[in-house]
Each structure stands twice: as structure tokens, then as C-alpha cells.
Amino acid sequence: MIRLAWLNLVRERTRLVISTVGIALALVLIMVIGGIFAGTEEFAVAYIKNVPAPIWLMQAGVENMHMASSFLAPQTVSLAELAPGVRDATSVLYMGANLEVGDDSIIGYIIGVEPDAVIGGPWDMVAGNADLAPGEIVVDQVLASRYGLVLGDPVTLFGSELTIAGLSRGNFGVGSSFAFVNKQTLAGLAGAPPDAGSFVLVRVESDADIDAVAASLREDVPGVNVMRQAAFADSDRELIRQMGADIVRAMNIIAYIVGLLVIALTIYTATLERSREYGMLKALGADFSKLAAVVLTQAFISAALGAMLGIALSYAAAQLIGSASPDMLVLIAPADVVNQLPILALVTALASLLPLARIAHLDPTIVFKA
Amino acid sequence: MSVPVARRNVFHHKGKLVLSVLSIGAALAMILLLLGFREGLYAAMTAYANNLGVDLIVAQSGVKGIVSSSSTLPIERHAQIEELAGAQEAGHIITAGVIFTRADTKMPVILIGYEPDANLGEPWKLGEGRTLLDNGEILLDTWLAQRAAVQVGDTVDLLGRQFEVVGLTRETASWMSPYVFISLKDAQETLGLVNAVSFHLLRLRDGAGEASARQAIEAQVDGVDVIRPNEIADVDRRAIAAVMDRPISVLLLVAIIIGIAVMGLTSYTAITDRIREYSLLKAVGASGFQLNRLIVTEGLTMGVISLSVGIGLAFLSASLIMANWPQFNVVIRAESVVLASLLALGMTLVSAFLPMRRLAGVDPIEAFKA
User: Chain A contact for B265, CB < 8 A?
Assistant: First the structure.
């Protein structure tokens, strides 16, 4: 049965190749959309993950950094430093703003850091320095290379020119690009008080219990939400997942419809071509279940070939996109691939219905017609 | 008497025609929907600026967008700005990105704080309930309310403060960031902005010179820029496009290749199905040019039918998507339809290449084989 199905498919190799590519690309579309959102999640939490602060303080009611605002009272840092087990507390100012380079406007997040802050600044410098003096900025090297910027070049923030003092790595992604500015400069440009802060990053003594320190901070510092680093990152991941869930679902449905039609077209055409042979098998006594098995096997072989090629192409596309555009991280987890297989199986079964109907109504006397 | 061979070939087998047309149509619809998603996102994210109904917006110097950047201005400049502009009405708003959280729902929203009694900056379309009358009240986007299972009269939490839902707005949904509205005073307190606003809004007297008002304010008020709402919408659109266009372009490219593969599959199977007929045409003297013209004519006939179906499918899917997922605004513009038509033409010509090669190698003697 499998051999007959295989022979039916490979008789027209070019058609098999085109249909395999069609099914594979529909799968690529599904995997890439999911991968882009997964990559966006990672870029969005890059700052939270890379700042070595196990505890974060933010405005009460705030649980996210991505697309969020937080304003803390100036005394938050000093109160946090008094809590038992706290090694140090660093305040950073954070806001969404457009960085302007010539006529281009780059939407992103600006982190205001004190020049002497031990944490909170860029975590991976590739050139220049991260000790930001007033009027200086650190931007990501990918952003710099895309807009032809080098150290010492000016960029505009809130209408004022800042000088690029350093280039960092790993903080320029789709929807989440970070630049770092002197904290007081940022407060001045944004019209905020000089001691304004958005988040307080807390490091704990080496022998301190992090949960106990967090509990003390909740008790001792009013008007704040205290979160562990991992929980804060998970909260941002969840936010992006919820934002993307429906669009990913909508695009997946469309891509699967296309995949379904490609499989249906391939198998239906192959069935049409073989009508006489199927008629002969019927005339010789083959029952519908045997012929249906051939059709279904053909469909599943086509889908399997398409899936294999699609998975390989998806990973290749992820690599290619990442190399060509480093701000677009396409992350495809093996679990995402496995999750698609039952849906593809269902789509394949549905795609076989029309060819199966054709076989069911096939007249065995077709074989005797001229 | 000429025989319409191409047309007869295309319409010979109805089942296959339907599958082919649906496959190509679905691929084209996918391209149109991707373009529609993009346009819809831009329209949703600039909806507030486009519906403000004011003549001029005064922003912090260097701020050119509502969605893409933060603006902070002292409220005490109000009287000076109003007088300089000779404004009929003047108001203020606060805009900020915050996260709306309720039970399992976590969604970034654009928070608008406006003065309920000023008739400026309010939502432009109310679906249910009433507009804001007092502090402590909130208007939610209808889709956001559905998603979070909130009804008019319920109490919701925003940044640690309780608000009563008094109305649900329409045309304010977006999968990226729907809008929510509270009073200016609540926004100031919630965001910790004492005596500060994001933008001053100005509605000028009839016949008042917009350019002169703009000039007067910028010349005499330090640290502000005066912008028209359409300029803000344009900046926001470009800033979002700088983020979104890359991933959407990747998806479009994949969709176009899928379209070519599906069309190629259709054209190729059309030729292989009728290889004997083509051999016969060759045997009776049809030239390579005539046969190629036949392939292109078949392809174009199929392309035109599929394009019509694709456009219909795209509009139908857009309606279904917006009915079931109101957060997706799908705007299919005439330019997108023209682009899809050109792509269909290009894909038809590219996909005709393989069948042409196949036909060039056909031996006329095939026609006389048993």
C-alpha cells in the first residue's frame, strides 16, 4: 500500500517537489510567526535578565517593564537600603522615547543610570565606556551600524543632542530597544525631578535569604511593588505571549488553510491522474477501504515530506533572519515544532476528503473506456 | 474558426479548478491580510491623534508622537499658551503606557487622562454606558472589557487604584495596546505627575491663523513644540512602522513564495495532465511560441479568477477576523489590492517557467502512444 502510494507521488517528481515546498512554506510561516514573538519575549526581558539584581522595586500596581511606566518616590532608594539583608540599592529612570538620527525616528526605551552606579547600565560593552557623563548616551552596536553611527556622533533625544560615548551589545531588538543615558540628563530632558526614579534594583548580602529580604522590603518601603527578578521577567514574557497569542493563532489558521489546499490539490491531482488505475483496482475487487488507504497514505507522505522540509527551512530561516537583521530574533523551540504535528495531521486528513470522495464515486467501468 | 484551448483547459475539470483557484486565492488573500493587519495596526495606534478634533497640540520640546514617546509639561503654562494661541478652547491630556491586569488578563494599554468637563481629548465613540463625569471613573475599550470579563458598573484596578467602569469605548481596540480613559486628575495622581501634563490641546477660533499661533507659542514658551494632530499621527505611524515593518516584510516574503509555489503547482499539474494534448498540438505544427502563449494565457486566466477569489476571501476573512477578534483592525486599502494584483501577475509569469520547460522537452510522438 505504502509502495503504491509512494509510486503515485514520485511519478511526477516536479509536482511532488513543488507541493512539498508549498506545504513546507506554510509551516515555515507558522513557525516564523511564533518564533518572532518568542524572540521578542527574549529581547523584552534582556535588561531584566542581565541586571544582576535579584529584587526589583517598582511603583505599586506595576508588574511589568515592557510598555509600562513606573514612578517611585525619591526616598525609595534610601528606605530600601535600610532594609535588613540589602547590600545596595540602585535607582534607574526608565521611559519610552524616540531616538532621532537624522530624519529617522527609532522608538525605544531609555534607561537613565547614575554615572557611579554599579549595576543598571549596559551589561555588554563593545566600545567606549559605560560611565555616562551628562549629555552622553550608550546605544547598541546594531543600531549604530544600521544608522552609520560611531563613537562621538550625535543623536537627538527629546529635542536635545547627546553624544554617543559607548556601544553595547544585546539590547536592540524588535519592539524592545534600549539606550542608556546619564540619569540626571534624562530627568532634565523628560521634565522629571532630578531625583526621579522608575525602578530600584536591589542586591542582597551573600548570606541573606532573598525571599526574606523581599518580605522586609514589602514591609518597610511604602508605595512599591517588590518582585523577584525571575518573576518580573516571567511577567513581561506573559505579557508578550498574551499580546501575540491571538495574532499568532489568526495567522496560523490562514497558513494552515493554505497548507490544507496545497495538500488537497496535490492528492486530488494525483488521484485524477490515476483514475483508470483506481478503476481497475475496483474492477478487480479492491474495496473502498483499500483505495482510501492508498489516498490517505499519499496525503500523509506528502505532508510528512513537507513537514520535514518545513522544519529544516524554519530553522534555516531563523538563522538567516538573525544574521541579516540582528534585531529580529526568531526562536523556534522543539516543543513548538512538536505542537504543530497533530494539527498538520488533522489538516492532512481533511485535505484527503475530496480525493476520497472522488475514489468513492469512481465507476470501475472507466478502465474499459477509450 | 479558432478554438479557445486555454479557456477549455482551465474549465475542463471543475473540482480541480475549484481547488486550484482556492489555493491561489488563499495565498493572495494571505498577502492582502498581512498588508491589512499592518495598515489596521497603524490606524488603531494613531486613532486617538486622528480623532482628537483639535487644531494644535503643544508638546514637550523634541516630542513628536503620542504613542511613541513620553511628554511632560508643567500645567502652569496653560494660561500663557491659551492666550498666545488666541484659542477658543484649551485643554490638557496625560498619555502613558501602562499595563492593565485583571485575573489572568495582562494587557499593555494606552492610558489617556483628560478633563471630563473640558470637551477635549475624550473618546470619540462610546459603545455602552456614559462618558466620564468625575474622578474615580474609567472608560475601557469594549474588546479589553470583554477579554477581562468586565462590565459597566464593575470596579477595576489600575496601578494600585480602584476605578468604577462607567462606559465602554469603540474604535479603540488594538492587539498591541487598546485605549483606556480616566480623568486628568486621576492620571496625575496615579502616575505621580504633580502639576504636570503630557500635552496641551488647542482648538482655535474660526479664522484664527494656525501658523501664527504656532509661531507665537514656540517663540515665547520655552521647551515646547507645537504640532498638528496629523503630524503626530504620521510620526507615530513611522515609529511603529520602523519596528513592525521588518517582521511583516519577512512574513510577506514567505507568503509570496508560497503563492508562487501554489501557482507553480497549479500550472505544472495543468500541463502534465494534458501532456498528450500538447504533444498532439506540437505534432500538428504548433510552435514553441504558440504553446508558451497557451501556458501563459492559461496561467493568466487562472490568475485573474484566483485574484478575484483572493480579494473576496481577504475581505470576507477580514470581516470574520474583526467580528471574532475585535482587537485586530484589518484595513485592506486599494493600494494593497493593486500590489496583490501585480504580485499575482508576477507570480503567474514566474510559475509558468517550469511548465514551459517541461513542454519544450515533450516529444510530439507522445500523442500517438497507446
Answer: yes
